[in-house]
Design a protein that fits this description.
The protein has one domain. The protein contains 6 helices and 5 strands, in the order ααααββββαβα. A 5-stranded antiparallel β-sheet has the order 4-3-2-1-5, with helices on both faces. Strand 1 and strand 2 form a beta hairpin. Helix 4 crosses helix 6.
């Protein structure tokens, strides 16, 4: 049986968390994610699901969680165009991170079909819309879920978040 992680902080099962993430992100997931038998899914399938959620719909939550992770000084950046918006973190050395791990401006432009004129803009954490409500970090709140996904990706496929 899959477990949430090796801590005592979560009282929910892995399946409950995955089901909840699919339910609350149904607007960004293609049909193939709803048709899948998640009980027999591989770690690669779960990693693809989590990345899809946090790269195409919940990137602001992920950026906010990463900004607060481990007390490190990571700024939040936003890239916007008529094609959409993407949030990521940037460390002191200028390296960008999102749910895919270390990334580049060029990779983000390509993924979201942003024109070359779109550049990262430093923003306040408040501009993500998170951090105003303590329930954001409660179990199953958006920031708790983003932290859970970040930890799971790191533990299961070694994704580096700086």
């Amino acid at each position: 049986m899959r477990t949430v992680h090796d801590t005592e902080e979560a009282s929910l099962s892995f399946a409950q968390i995955i089901d909840h993430l699919i339910d609350v992100n149904d607007d960004v997931l293609p049909d193939e994610f709803f048709d899948k038998d998640w009980n027999s899914a591989s770690d690669e399938d779960y990693a693809n699901l989590l990345r899809r959620i946090y790269l195409h719909g919940s990137c602001a939550e992920f950026a906010y969680a990463l900004h607060r992770k481990d007390g490190r000084d990571r700024g939040i950046v936003r890239m916007m165009s008529p094609n959409g918006v993407h949030y990521a973190c940037q460390d002191e050395g200028g390296e960008l991170y999102d749910a895919s791990g270390p990334t580049t401006v060029e990779a983000i432009r390509k993924r979201y079909r942003f024109p070359k004129s779109v550049v990262p803009e430093a923003i306040s954490p408040d501009e993500t819309g998170f951090g105003h409500d303590e329930s954001d970090e409660d179990e199953m709140g958006p920031i708790w879920l983003a932290n859970w996904a970040m930890d799971w990706l790191h533990e299961h496929d070694g994704t580096n978040y700086g």
